[in-house]
Amino acid sequence: MLKSNVYLEVCLSTVKLLMSEDREVLAFEYLKRVCQHFESSPDLGTALVLHIELLLQRGKELLGKQKIEDIITGHYTGKQLTPQALTRLHVMLWDKASKHFEAKNYAEALQWYNYSLSFFKAGQMEPNSAKLQRNRASCFLQLKQLEKAKEAIKEAERCDPDSIFTQFSVYKIAVHENNVEKAAEAVNAMGLLSKSRVASEDGLLVSENAASNLLSLAAQIALENEQQETAMKALETLCENSKDEAQVLTALRCLVRLVLSTVEKSSDEMRGMGIWMSCCHI
Fold it and tell me: How many other C-beta atoms can be found within 10 angstroms of the C-beta atom of residue 242?
């Protein structure tokens, strides 16, 4: 078939057919010959990306990574993929990274995101670049690599500073650093950005309450890290900006409880100080 003037699409369809018939060895051998036959074709990337896709589907991650690294090398030596093939590869890489992240394999997730990053030009300004950096920052946070997380979010801010998800990532890092002032700034920014429609992130369905949900999550993160002042700030911002009455009522209840617990703690400290002063005068 390859000796005739055949279209690449026909060859790739043949590969898929062989795979569907469980002729894996024959399919990969034929695909290898297809790549060699169309080596000088601008559409070669379509075959290469399919090869990677099939390898990953069959659980051959190591071989898949080798093929990806070959494509990255080619990308910087004049053998770039077509925009369509590159987009397809990015989707594949992010999907693998997301699955590893969900499985708490954070180092693996980071490696797949880094593969994707390899195709972005230095200083490239676009929302996808910002989203990629936010995902990398999440991996770094889980790996306890705070400085690298900050570097990634700095890039995300440069690419897409007006994204509520970027500010949420800034907030998470501030909480990890116990930086109350920085966390408050991020919450204020999230409050302002919540007035605009929020785009989707990581395939999540984003409702009209998405911004409020992020602020609610911000309060939860602060409480988990025993930062009541920051949690109260997040809840106050939520109450000021949410249009969901039930959500506002829940936030107000939490806020009242936090205020009361803070007052009780202050009262206990004052009573303790009074006892200490009394003891000093015995």
Answer: 23
Tokens 């992240």 found at:
101
What is the percent of the chain with per-residue pLDDT over 90, rounded to a whole number? Answer: 51
CA-CA-CA-CA torsion for 26, 29, 32, 36, nearest 10 degrees?
Answer: -110
CB contact at 8 A, 35 and 44: yes
Task: Note the residue count of the chain.
Answer: 282
Question: In degrees, to the nearest 5, what angle opens at C-alpha 52 toward C-alphas 49 and 153?
Answer: 80
Distance CA 149, CA 111 (A): 14
Cα separation, 213 vs 105, in Å, equals 26
The whole-number average pLDDT for the span 174-202 is 85
Rounded Cα distance between 18 and 263, Å, is 71
Confidence of residue 116 (pLDDT cuts 50, 70, 90): very high
Q: In terms of C-beta distances under 8 Å and separation of at least 24 residues, what long-range contacts does 116-122 make, across chains too?
A: 116/90, 118/72, 118/75, 119/72, 119/75, 119/86, 119/89, 119/90
For residue 274, pLDDT over 60 is answered with no
User: How far apart, in whole angstroms, are the C-alpha atoms of residue 98 and residue 113?
Assistant: 9
Average confidence score pLDDT of the chain: 85
